[in-house]
Design brief:
It is a single chain. This protein is an alpha+beta fold. The protein is 20% helix and 44% strand. The protein contains three helices and 26 strands. Strands 2-10-9-4-5-6 form a six-stranded mixed sheet, with no helix packed on it. Strands 12-20-21-24-23 form a five-stranded mixed sheet, with no helix packed on it. A four-stranded antiparallel sheet has the order 1-3-8-7. A hairpin with a 2-residue loop joins strand 25 and strand 26. The longest helix has 54 residues. The N terminus and C terminus are likely disordered.
């Protein structure tokens, strides 16, 4: 029985139906004991990996076996290399199985590899080689600086994958929806996901991550971590000393400064006056030894960066121990004077009342004398 070619019909059908039809044709053609046939197996491999392309033979009688690449260039002719490409090697040639190996696979090797058996009529099957390109770790691009009170735009980019990778933004375990775009580069795809989020100074250092998922990675993912760098104006606070400062003591002030970027220069000054001669400045620290009342006044700490300026002040009041003692010694005399004044006032009031009562009593006696004489 003369075999019938099925390639023309198979080309007109969708791939799954074509593959099933080819297998059915092979079975029907090989009902007779001496019928020869060839079968091919599809292969999927990662880019850079190794692919094994197999051609299974049935009732092989030594006929010519040819393997061709997707461009229909002959790779092997009955086990002999025909194309000068060292990446292809014949690893097995038996009456039942012919297998070649392709190393360092690229997306340009993708396509249908023909297994052809030349008998009275040519039989061929196509082994489809599919190449997966997993994404590398994505990159994060920032469109503009993140400034307190504004928004920041971040774009996660996966430049090359096949099929297209899936990108996802995450923050504190929650997904941030992004605007996804995809570009076809021929054999591979580039994918990007852009997010816009408002930022405050509390967001400085916040951790974000962009994750890339792909069938070639299975349950794994490629992750790019990113920390927000939020710029904001400085804040300034002077840390005052504890306790009362007296003449002869030492003053030490520390200027606590925050900001992004952190101000490099901290300026100390005295309002409406110049700094004392004995003042020592070392970055955020301001010191004066052997204080006196001439050092009294308001001292100012200032700092600035590209996003603003801030300041804080401290008022110094040095106490004189002698003046304090004199003030305390004057207090008892004031109290004694007040008591004496109160006693004098009380005595005067008693005298007035006594005199008034005496005068009234004498008047009463004079009124009674005529009445007694009449009787």
């Amino acid at each position: 029985m003369r075999p019938v070619r099925s390639s023309v019909l198979c080309r007109l059908l969708p791939a799954p139906f074509a593959l099933a039809l080819r297998s059915l044709v092979l079975v029907l053609l090989c009902i007779t004991p001496h019928c020869q046939a060839v079968q091919a197996e599809n292969v999927t491999v990662l880019e850079g990996g190794t692919a094994q392309i197999s051609c299974r033979l049935q009732n092989y009688d030594g006929s010519i076996v040819v393997i061709q690449n997707p461009r229909r260039q002959t790779l092997f002719f009955n086990g002999t290399r025909a194309l000068k490409d060292d990446r292809f090697q014949m690893v097995l040639f038996t009456p039942r199985l012919v297998r070649i190996e392709l190393t360092n696979v690229s997306v340009f090797d993708e396509g249908g590899y023909f297994c052809q058996l030349y008998t009275d009529a040519t039989h061929h099957q196509v082994a489809t080689l599919s190449v997966l390109v997993p994404p590398e770790t994505p990159t994060v691009d920032v469109k503009q600086e993140a400034v307190e009170g504004g928004e920041v735009e971040l774009t996660c980019v996966s430049p090359r994958s096949k099929p297209a990778a899936t990108l996802r933004w995450m923050r504190n375990g929650r997904e941030i929806p992004g605007v996804v775009s995809q570009q076809d580069n021929g054999k591979t795809f580039s994918v990007s996901s852009t997010i816009r989020i408002p930022v405050e100074r509390k967001d400085n250092g916040a951790a974000l991550s962009c994750e890339a998922f792909h069938p070639a990675l299975g349950t794994q993912r490629r992750v790019r971590h990113y920390r927000l760098d939020v710029f904001f104006a400085p804040t300034v606070r002077i840390v005052p000393p504890s306790g009362i400062l007296r003449e002869g003591d030492s003053l030490s002030l520390t200027c606590s400064v925050s900001g992004n970027p952190l101000p490099r220069n901290i300026q100390w000054s005295k309002i409406n006056d110049t700094l004392p001669e004995r003042a020592e400045i070392s970055g955020p620290t301001f010191q004066i030894s052997r204080l006196s009342q001439s050092h009294n006044g308001t001292y100012l700490c200032q700092a600035q960066n590209n996003f603003g300026r801030a300041a804080d002040h401290y008022t110094l009041l040095v106490y004189d121990p002698g003046a304090v003692v004199e003030t305390h010694s004057a207090v008892p005399y004031a109290v004694i004077g007040g008591v004496l004044a109160l006693l004098v006032f009380t005595v005067i009031c008693v005298l007035i009342v006594t005199i008034w009562c005496s005068v009234r009593q004498k008047g009463s006696y004079r009124t009674r004398e005529p009445i007694l004489a009449w009787y």
